[in-house]
Amino acid sequence: MLRPTKKTQFTPAEYLAMEQAADYKSEYYDGEIFAMSGGTADHSVIQGNWIAALHQQLSAKPCRVFTSDMRLLVARSGLYTYPDAMVVCGKIEFVERRKDTLTNPLLIVEVLSESTRTYDRGVKFNFYKQIPSLQEYVLVESEQAHVEVYRRVGDPSARSGQDLWTMDLSEGLDGDIRLQSVECEISVAQIYAKVTWGN
């Protein structure tokens, strides 16, 4: 969440109406609207590689891959946002009377940049943990070959608070990224194919 607009408070309905007419995407939380910053060429290539790899891997499964054009509502907190990639397996649960905002991703991928890295790792991850359907959260560095896969352990609806997350780390271009939630493996080299790192 970056630059709030001039008006200080909006309802979700006002936000959604404004998004429909806007030329750029914004997040919404607690009455405030925050313009989302654009990404670099490498960020865009990595995002595209993830979408392509997930489509290929999941083509025979009852799963759908969504780009950042699909909005996500974290129902428990009221956050509206646009992850770089999401996967839903089975029935898609949309916000009532909308087809552009879903609520039940199994997997979320965020490509990190200098302006979003801290937010995606911290506050945003805490929001995402509130999604009962979410099983894995993938953070992908855009400035080096570094991928973190956070995997949920335990029941997010349990009152005991035993909703724990483990993390698998891939560094360098060798090896594979294992996604248990959708039962597939994607090579790190495929994710970073044609990335220049500013060269």
Task: Describe the protein.
This protein has 199 residues and is of the alpha+beta class. It is built from 5 helices and 14 strands. It has helices spanning 12-21, 41-58, 117-121, 123-128, 188-191, and strands spanning 3-4, 26-29, 32-35, 63-66, 71-74, 79-81, 85-89, 101-102, 107-112, 136-141, 146-153, 164-171, 176-179, 184-187. The strands form 4 sheets. Strands 4-7-9-10-11-12 form a 6-stranded mixed sheet. Strands 1-3-2 form a 3-stranded antiparallel sheet, with helices on one face. A hairpin with a 4-residue loop joins strand 5 and strand 6 (79-81). It starts with a strand and ends in an 8-residue tail after the last helix. The mean pLDDT is 91.
Give the arrangement of secondary structure elements.
Elements: E1 3-4, H1 12-21, E2 26-29, E3 32-35, H2 41-58, E4 63-66, E5 71-74, E6 79-81, E7 85-89, E8 101-102, E9 107-112, H3 117-121, H4 123-128, E10 136-141, E11 146-153, E12 164-171, E13 176-179, E14 184-187, H5 188-191
Parallel strand pairs: 5-8, 9-10
Antiparallel strand pairs: 1-3, 2-3, 4-7, 5-6, 7-9, 10-11, 11-12, 13-14
* Biggest sheet overview: 6 strands, mixed
Q: Percentage of helical residues?
A: 10-25%
Number of strands: 14
Low-confidence spans: pLDDT under 50, at least 5 residues? none
Q: Describe the oligomeric state of these chains in a short phrase.
A: single chain
Instruction: Name the helix and strand elements from N-terminus to C-terminus, one letter apiece.
Output: EHEEHEEEEEEHHEEEEEH
Global structural class: alpha+beta
| Biggest sheet, spatial arrangement of strands | 4-7-9-10-11-12
Average pLDDT, to the nearest integer? 91
| Percent in strands | 25-35%
> Count of DSSP helices?
5
What general form does the structure show? globular
Radius of gyration: 17 Å
Straight-line N-to-C gap: 29 Å
